[in-house]
Design a protein that fits this description.
Elements (H helix, E strand, L loop, with lengths): L1 H8 L58 E3 L2 E3 L18 E3 L7 E2 L12 E3 L7 E2 L12 E3 L18 E3 L21 E3 L22 E3 L18 E3 L7 E2 L12 E3 L7 E2 L12 E3 L20 E3 L27 E3 L24 E2 L6
Parallel strand pairs: 2-3, 3-5, 4-6, 5-7, 7-8, 8-9, 9-10, 10-11, 11-13, 12-14, 13-15, 15-16, 16-17, 17-18
Antiparallel strand pairs: 1-2
Length: about 375
């Protein structure tokens, strides 16, 4: 029963918002809304995830004092550690150091851990990382270093890295070249940092082929330029974005999901959304829009639109659905319009002729 308890205790390795991770090996990064039964829309790649049960038990007697070690998993969380512990078995694949008081990652802290696959450093006090601290980690794919005191993205990240979660730190700048050589990276979560648009140097994301990027809860006033054009999911919620201009989305034609909720958006320029032909979900809730954005009927794969808590006063009969039959390839599964000053009794039923179910439409509950 002890191995089962250990693995169960790892089910919540990333507790920090905005994630609601259901299990440690669950890297689907869902936002609370399922991705519409479209497997290819997943924001993170789970291929290569080791099956811990398939590993033969390690017979090494090496285990740091106070930690739990089994099946190449070393759990040292919630121990009040000031430094990375010694005597970690070299065959370790998962090292959990979250919820401690570690302030620095030194040059030889991970020496000999060439088989490490996932490193969890969430909720420490790390403010300094030696430029060669990660050099031994040649097979590292998951690095969780959120909720620390970092003021910059760590240098010389392992080229094997697939997923980086560095949200809730103190990072203000993303310099050019900081992600150089990370050809395997497909997911970065860097929200909760005081990043402004000017903090992204030109070419900061050069060479990356990301599927998923979140820069939420920052200080952005517009959509950052030159993000990877490979993105399937882009989340910029909880910022200070005021408008979407014509060419802001020009290079993001592969987006499936775009999150712009909880901003200050008043205007979306006509034609802006035409650059997103594969879009499935659009989150524009909690903004200052006065009308339904133009161009929604032309998005033939769009299935979910969040427009609640805006200033929308009118909904036209052709705001959501294209004219004619057989034009839209996927019907809507959800349209939220509640908490808008819309006279709902004036909305024509034909407005939602391309919705799968009337229950998918959310109206009402407007309060001044």
């Amino acid at each position: 029963m002890w191995p089962l308890w250990l693995l169960t205790s790892l089910l919540a390795l990333s507790q920090a918002l905005p994630f609601e991770q259901k299990g440690f090996w669950d890297f689907t990064l869902d936002d609370g809304v399922p991705m519409l039964n479209d497997e290819e829309a997943s924001g993170a790649d789970t291929s290569g995830v080791p099956d811990l049960d398939s590993f033969p038990p390690t017979f090494s007697a090496m285990c740091p004092f106070g930690c739990h070690c089994h099946l190449r998993v070393v759990q040292c969380s919630d121990l009040g550690l000031k430094t990375v512990p010694k005597e970690i078995s070299p065959d370790t694949t998962l090292l959990d150091l979250q919820n401690n008081d570690i302030t620095e990652l030194r040059k030889d802290d991970f020496k000999g851990l060439q088989h490490l696959y996932a490193l969890v450093l969430v909720n420490n006090k790390i403010s300094k990382i030696h430029e060669k601290a990660f050099s031994p980690l040649r097979k590292l794919q998951k690095l969780y270093i959120s909720k620390n005191h970092l003021v910059e993205i760590p240098p010389n990240l392992p080229s094997s890295l697939v997923e980086l979660r560095i949200h809730d730190n103190r990072i203000r700048k993303v310099p050019k070249g900081v992600f150089s050589g990370l050809r395997n990276m497909n997911c970065i979560e860097m929200g909760g940092n005081p990043l402004e648009n000017s903090g992204f140097e030109p070419g900061a994301f050069d060479g990356l082929k990301l599927n998923y990027l979140r820069i939420s809860e920052a200080k952005l006033t517009g959509i950052p330029k030159d993000l990877p054009e490979t993105l399937n999911e882009l989340h910029l919620d909880h910022n200070k974005i005021q408008a979407i201009e014509l060419e802001d989305l020009l290079r993001y034609s592969k987006l499936y999901r775009l999150g712009l909720g909880h901003n200050q958006i008043r205007m979306i320029e006509n034609g802006s959304l035409s650059f997103l032909p594969t879009l499935r979900e659009l989150h524009l809730d909690n903004n200052k829009l006065s009308k339904v954005p133009a161009g929604l009927p032309d998005l033939k794969l769009l299935q979910v639109v969040y427009l609640h808590t805006n200033n929308i006063t009118k909904v036209g009969v052709n705001d959501f659905c294209p004219m004619g039959f057989g034009v839209k390839r996927a019907y809507y599964n959800g349209i939220s319009l509640f908490n808008n000053p819309v006279p709902y009794w004036e909305v024509q039923p034909a407005t939602f002729r391309c919705v799968t179910d009337r229950l998918a439409i959310q109206f009402g509950n407007y309060k001044k």
